[in-house]
Amino acid sequence: MRLGLKILMVLGLTLAILVPLTMIRGTINERQMYREQAVQTVARSYAGAQGLAGPVLVVPYVETIEVEEKNDKGVVIRKVKRDGASGQWTFFADTMDVTGKVLPSTRRLGLHEVRVYELKGTLSARFHAAIPADANPELPRKIGQPWLAYGIADVRGLAGSPRLRIDGGDRRLEQGLGSRNGAGVHVRLPTPRAGTALAFESQLDFALGGTESLAIAPLAKRNRIVLDSTWPHPQFNGAFLPRTRMVDGKGFHAEWEVSSLATDAQAQYLAGNTRAAGGGEPGNDALLHAAGADGANGRGALDAVGVSLVDPVNVYSQADRASKYGLLFVLLTFVGFFMFELIKQLRIHPIQYGLVGLALAIFFLLLVSLSEHIAFAWAYLTASVACIGLLGFYVAHVLHSRARGLGFAAMLATLYAALYGLLVSEDNALVLGAGLLFVILAALMVVTRKVDWYRVGVIAPSSP
Length: 464
Description:
Layout: H1 2-16, H2 18-45, E1 50-62, E2 65-70, E3 76-81, E4 86-92, E5 95-109, E6 112-130, E7 142-143, E8 147-152, E9 163-166, E10 169-171, E11 174-177, E12 180-188, E13 197-211, E14 213-217, E15 222-229, E16 234-238, E17 244-248, E18 251-259, H3 265-270, E19 305-309, H4 315-323, H5 326-344, H6 350-371, H7 376-398, H8 402-424, H9 429-447, H10 453-458
Parallel strand pairs: 1-14, 5-15
Antiparallel strand pairs: 1-4, 1-7, 1-8, 2-3, 5-6, 6-13, 8-12, 9-10, 9-13, 11-12, 14-19, 15-18, 16-19, 17-18
Helix pairs in contact: 1-5, 1-6, 2-4, 2-6, 4-6, 5-6, 6-7, 7-8, 8-9
């Protein structure tokens, strides 16, 4: 009977420790939210997650129509009007080549470091746009002055003055996208005649700053994008992964080759979609305000290639993952205490169970607080040494034996070492966790293999 009450007590205390563990996880999530607010603050003062779309050639026109009207005498006459329906032709480049170097840096806001970058690049494109001939030479369209538009998610990121050359000659860029809404730059071109072709090569040299991630929409018929950086921890996302990539401690080199046959980016652009599809870290869905038709609702997404400068050690996500094992730590510790009570016939008060459980829970609070100031590995080591030392000292007195205290501390050290292995080896976390649980269960079964549970259940433990 006393055994059953003790088991219920241990289970009740284990569930009670969920309260401080839940509060600690709430604190971790709150600190993570503060970090995201720091990213948004830096983005507002510097530039947000960047997106680049274009160039796109737009040629406006106005239809010439023939109408019938009655004069003052009621006679029907025909008149030609040049203010008929207006429209525009949109032409995409035959080829687009983007080459650039992503130069990373960090901005500190309080305790938080925010990753920013400057892309120094060149965007080259070749156009051959056939202007439609007039269906009726007697009713020719009125063709307006075309413009070549480059969409940029956050134009505040433009450093200095971008240089645009068309067929080798410098051209002056203007803000916006011509007569269309959106962020970016554009240049006006000479007005073509119906039935002719606009054929030219363009080259834009630019420096574009952004925060954490970059997306580039492949709008040409053939797209080639080459990026280099000294950041050693890139995350490639978006609709297409690099065709070739090299990542090492010195940085990364990535190349994409995308054909218009493999993407719906052109159709998405014509449909008014304005968002470059990314994924994963915050900011990967960089708004391409420029990449949409008039009246775009901004709800669609452009296929895009993307790269994010990720933090290889996100202290908040790792602390949150570690806290998920908190209940297991408490349960295993209580089971260890329970085994001492059964095997060594020691009495351990519920308050002593509770104090040990609280010490285990505080480890996770120490971990997240220290990791904001020092490297995660050192924070983990410091927090675990502090908790193991405290518990070893306390348990040595509870169990009336320094050797038992040292053995208990060694068991905790093994658990903390195993947990750290789970945290740093995310890909193998499941198999490592399953193996750890199997070893623990096997150890319990071996230790208690000769225990007569019926006898234990009827004999009260004696005082040590």
